From TrEMBL:
Pfam hit, one: FMO-like
Molecular function terms from GO: flavin adenine dinucleotide binding; N,N-dimethylaniline monooxygenase activity; NADP binding
Family membership: Belongs to the FAD-binding monooxygenase family.
Flavoprotein is among the record's keywords: yes
SUPFAM superfamilies linked to this entry: FAD/NAD(P)-binding domain (SSF51905)
Annotated protein name in UniProt: Cyclohexanone monooxygenase
Cofactors named for this entry: FAD
Key words of the record: FAD, Flavoprotein, Monooxygenase, NADP, Oxidoreductase
Amino acid sequence: MMGEMVEAANKGIDGKYDAVVVGAGIGGLYAVYKLREMGLSVLGIEAGDNVGGVWYWNRYPGARCDLLTIDYCYTFSPEVDAEWSWSEQFAAQPEILEYINFVADRHELRKDYLFDTRVNRAEYDEARQVWTFRTETGKTFEATYAVMATGPLSVPKRPDFEDFDSFKGELYYSGRWPKEPVSYEGKRVGVVGVGSTGIQIIPVVAQEAKELVVFQRTPSFTMPMRNHKHSAEYTAEIKRNLSAMRAQARNSPLGGVRPATTRPYFSLPPEHRVKIMESAWQNGGHTFLGSFSDLMQNEEANEQVAEFVRGKISQVVSDPATAEALKPRGYPIFARRACLDTNYYETYNEEHVSLVDCFKEPIVGLTEKGVRTAEREIELDMLILATGYDGLTGALMAFDVVGRGGKTINQEWKDGAHSYLGLMMKDFPNLFMICGPNGPSALANIFTINEQNVNWLAGAIDHMRRSGLTAMEPTVEAEHEWMDHVHDLSLNTLVRKANTWYTGANVAGKARGLTMYTGGFKAYREACQDAADDNWRGMVFEKTGVPETVA
């Protein structure tokens, strides 16, 4: 009878593995490498036709990393460190994608991937303790361990415009940009959205377009990037000191080497504070974030820094009405993503560039010829949608993930994402989430987070295999305790006071709440390590389907 059951279970299975990794981005590639190095059989599944994750899909004009390149890279490979050098302080998308491809080539990671394949269902078989992955191509795979490296920003959000499909011109999503070159020369171009993506797109498109119309709902705070090339001497210095810098990064709140200070804003006299802010503006990058220690806790300090930046907008933008419309109000500075730009505000001084304030003149819908606002029709040849993502939870809720007893992640997260350590969920045994909700996610260096998450799950799998255990999941008590901790931390930061994808406010009907760990990367890493060191505290383990231990 058992043989008949196994034979029936094997029917229609195209491959069996120790682990299946969903996604070929930063976290997915490292997960495949790490698990393979442990001796596991691994299959990676990726919807795109190559590696790169968010940098594969985001090919829009001006796409560039807003983290220092000395942070924005893997740390696991001495070979890559020795052979790769970044060309500039803030790398552009082509160079980042080239880097990720370089890592994939150097460690032969593509051979373990199935590309052009999208998972549409992952289901746990409780009796056999395996995950079954069904794909849109009709192939089915099984694995003991499911690693979801689907990314916090991988599901573009379609705006809810009337008559969306009626527009006859060129229409592009920033997050699904075509590989073929796009020309803006001689065209009337509209850009919807002024988050970090729109802020990068707008100055580049303005250089070629006959006319550029920017549709802005909520303006973003953005600082000058002040990008520059790396000299050979500086590159040599970086390589000599890389080990020490990375040790500092792992023990920092942001998982990187951004500037930081312990001085609160009001500990300095006003003239000293202004000098620091002027210096931060001139130095560029995220210098502002490290200028004062309490910007995300002290509302009065935050507002004074915000007003300084608003003043800079007036200094740059010549038209007073446009300058005023570009000034963010109603939320704390840095509560939304901290943007960096190159000539963003200067672009509005160009005669062929105009701004539509969608709070005063909202977009109603699209027409064959362009965009219909509450007041007029604006004719366009091209429309670029930089309208963001269904962040943090969108990718895992875009397909069916079914755990114990038929429970789905969609059901479990309908009132908000919950997990233990941002890594695992009760009733979803052996399912690991990388860089998902309830961890630091967008609030720290994504390379550092991904490596830490993968190392943790690799340690958990190694523990199970050495101990003869076949499955693990958190207890409900451990999950509740972690979520209470995440919630309590969120009350101490002004990040919660802005309507952003951080809080789910950009997607209609999505549960609201700040489901990111705001205690800093160092504290998060230590919490995860403490749980592992304490005999995997908070976990229940199984052995051939029978509960074995509760740590």
